[in-house]
Write a structure and sequence with these properties.
- By secondary structure, the protein is an all-alpha fold.
- The protein contains 15 helices and two strands.
- The chain has helices at 3-18, 25-35, 42-53, 60-80, 97-100, 103-122, 128-142, 147-156, 164-190, 194-221, 224-227, 233-236, 242-246, 248-272, 278-286; strands at residues 90-91, 94-95.
- The protein has a two-stranded antiparallel sheet.
- Strand 1 (90-91) and strand 2 form a beta hairpin.
- Helix 10 (194-221) runs antiparallel to helix 14 (248-272).
- The longest helix has 28 residues, at 194-221.
């Protein structure tokens, strides 16, 4: 299935979930305002591409799983943009949720997008043991053992001189955990052997690290019209970033090294448990930047 159809099906799965949610029209409007703002849908696409690579034909339950991780991601962006966090006015090229609506509505929209995915996962047409594993892994990736904890560490590091190991720990949780989930989820749905699941986790962790390094570089080097949000915010907030710690050119090198490692492990996994990794390799390759 091509990329455009995959994204359309993920978007539909989210819209279907919120259709008929009649308690508060304003809350649903705020949720869908951010969901429909665009974005690359990287996490859902990784999951769906990985399923196809593992030989599965895509079905409704797969799009619902892909939707669940995109919902968590979108909720995190709404909260990230709030005045108490990154205090940004623009996201994906248009007003952030709290600017379009108000702070209270944005908080509640983000809350909904954090909680609703677990209800969605509970309803999918898959064996109960797989659903429980998916719910557990998404919770781990999202909360106090993953993304939210990483955000807390990121806030605490502002204005501080942190070591590379500390910076990696921050972003392994803040960004990496939710990018690792699609690889794990695909492995769980396809019921791959445990050693292959470990390799897929490693690929996801490396991709998550690379994605954050890439984001740090783009924050310094890309203008608003291409970035879709206010550039230079990390610098103004005195956030710990890879360019601030390593320098810009070494950050490019670090990014590409991380992507190389991810590709190598993916190739090894495809040798141990035969599958077709080319679409994932292409996605990894697309994240490269050249200084």
């Amino acid at each position: 299935m091509d990329k455009k159809r995959k994204i359309a099906n993920v978007n539909r799965a989210i819209l279907d979930f919120y259709q008929g949610a009649e308690v508060s029209d304003r809350l649903v409007q705020a949720i869908l305002y951010s969901v429909e703002a665009g974005g690359k849908r990287i996490r859902p696409l990784i999951f769906l591409d990985m399923l196809e690579a593992l030989g599965l034909e895509l079905e409704e339950s797969h799009f619902q799983i892909a939707a669940s991780v995109e919902m968590i991601h979108t909720g995190s962006l709404i909260h990230d943009d709030l005045p108490a966090m990154d205090n940004d006015d623009y996201r994906r090229g248009r007003l952030t949720n709290h600017r379009q609506f108000d702070e209270a509505t944005a908080i509640l929209a983000g809350d909904s997008l954090f909680l609703d995915p677990f209800g969605l996962l509970s309803e999918i047409d898959l064996p109960s043991e797989i659903k429980v594993r998916l719910i557990a892994e998404l919770s781990k990736a999202s909360g106090v053992k993953g993304m939210v904890a990483g955000q807390m560490l990121d806030i605490l590091s502002e204005g501080q001189n942190v070591a590379l190991e500390q910076l990696q720990a921050i972003h392994a949780n803040k960004t990496g955990a939710l990018l690792t989930f699609p690889f794990l989820a695909a492995g769980l749905v396809a019921q791959v052997p445990s050693n292959t699941l470990i390799q897929l986790r490693q690929v996801g962790e490396l991709l998550g690290l690379a994605f954050q390094v890439r984001d740090d570089i783009l924050d310094l080097t890309v203008e608003f019209d291409k970035l879709g949000k206010t550039p230079g915010k990390d610098l103004l907030a005195e956030k710990s970033t890879y360019p601030s710690l390593l320098g810009l050119e070494p950050s490019y090198q670090f990014l590409n090294q991380s992507l190389n490692q991810a590709q190598t492990i993916l190739e090894e996994a495809a040798t141990d448990y035969p599958f077709e990794p080319q679409s994932i390799q292409n996605l990894i390759e697309s994240l490269r930047l050249h200084g």
